[in-house]
Amino acid sequence: MSKSKSKGGGTPSDAPAIETSGLVKVFGENRAVDGIDLTVSPGTVYGVLGPNGAGKTTAVKMLATLLRPDGGEARVFGHDVLREADTVRSLVSLTGQYASVDEDLTGVENLVLLARLLGHGKARGRERARQLLDAFGLAEAADRQVKNYSGGMRRRIDIAASILNTPDLLFLDEPTTGLDPRSRNQVWDIVRAVVAQGTTVLLTTQYLEEADQLAGRIAVIDHGRVIAEGTPGELKSSVGAGSVHVRLRDPGQRAEAGEVLARELGARVQWEADPVALTARVTGDDEGPGAATRASRALGELAAHGITVDDFSLGQPSLDEVFLALTDTRRPHRDGTSAEFKGAAA
Ligand SMILES: Nc1ncnc2c1ncn2[C@@H]1O[C@H](COP(=O)(O)OP(=O)(O)OP(=O)(O)O)[C@@H](O)[C@H]1O
Ligand SMILES: [Mg+2]
């Protein structure tokens, strides 16, 4: 069955890094993963994007042989996760699971210990530990107990531990959730460095921006199913070029402003909780001048209607927006109108 044999830690050839078909995991009544088909090419970063409870971690655990699938198939570099679990385990690493660090040990003690467990000699283990601590900006904290690390440092040492032996496939399950922008950037650099060494990365995230920065392809999952798949560009253009956020001076003008924006942008306009705020998605194929030009035209039209705008921005679609748009496509409004004016009328 296995057509591509790993060369013991090296990069296996031909087979996809991950290939699943109809993968299912059921917890009681809950189909946490409900028939997922994925193909991940070797040497790439593949993003799995989805909200809380979408089934990301469950899918990753099945691929990493930590959970038994209830249906479908999954292969890692051609090896079946059930029938060839040992081989799969030798090829993958999962941050925070296989490489769990000991809170009471220092950074360097943890890495040396894990390196020894992986069969490195004492000198080689220390050398690899130091290398990684340097690379991850943890040299100064090397002799501090991990329980005294900040969240960002903790995340970095977890990743360092998971790549002591360069894995063929690395699962990073929400590696930057809760990190500040600086720590997030450091983790992104680490991921890029890992991929440059030939490792394939499956990255789960709730942030479109993160997937955009790192991933060559993305699957958006919701309720255990893939609802969209493609390159970041394809995904974004399927949703719209960006979002216009407008804050008005006078909340009494919001309904009229909504109508003007909807007409000018040909887009859905949503009311935010703030009574003077509106958001509209700008459709189009990219972020270029097209979207900006149309947004500024719409602004001009607001002014022409005597509507005072205090604040305005044009930004990339957020995951929420991508996600809402994708689910909207699947469930169009029954009466064909846009949601905002149903909201406005209510
Ligand atoms: N061991 C378990 N037993 C029962 N239900 C589970 C178990 N693990 C996960 N679930 C359920 O399966 C669904 C998917 O959970 P999962 O952890 O895969 O989501 P996720 O996409 O990783 O979410 P998050 O972004 O919050 O990490 C959820 O409804 C969750 O409650
Ligand atoms: Mg999860």
From TrEMBL:
Membrane topology classification: Peripheral membrane protein
Keywords, comma-separated and alphabetical: Antibiotic resistance, ATP-binding, Cell membrane, Membrane, Nucleotide-binding, Translocase, Transport
ABC transporter domain mapped to chain residues: 18-248
PROSITE patterns: ABC_TRANSPORTER_1 (PS00211), ABC_TRANSPORTER_2 (PS50893)
Coiled-coil region list: none
InterPro entries given in the database record: AAA+_ATPase (IPR003593), ABC_transporter-like_ATP-bd (IPR003439), ABC_transporter-like_CS (IPR017871), ABC_transporter_ATP-binding (IPR050763), DrrA (IPR005894), P-loop_NTPase (IPR027417)
Gene3D superfamilies assigned to the protein according to its UniProt record, in alphabetical order: P-loop containing nucleotide triphosphate hydrolases
GO MF entries: ATP binding
Origin superkingdom: Bacteria
Family: Belongs to the ABC transporter superfamily. Drug exporter-1 (DrugE1) (TC 3.A.1.105) family.
Entries under NCBIfam families matching the protein: drrA
Name this protein carries in UniProt: Daunorubicin resistance protein DrrA family ABC transporter ATP-binding protein
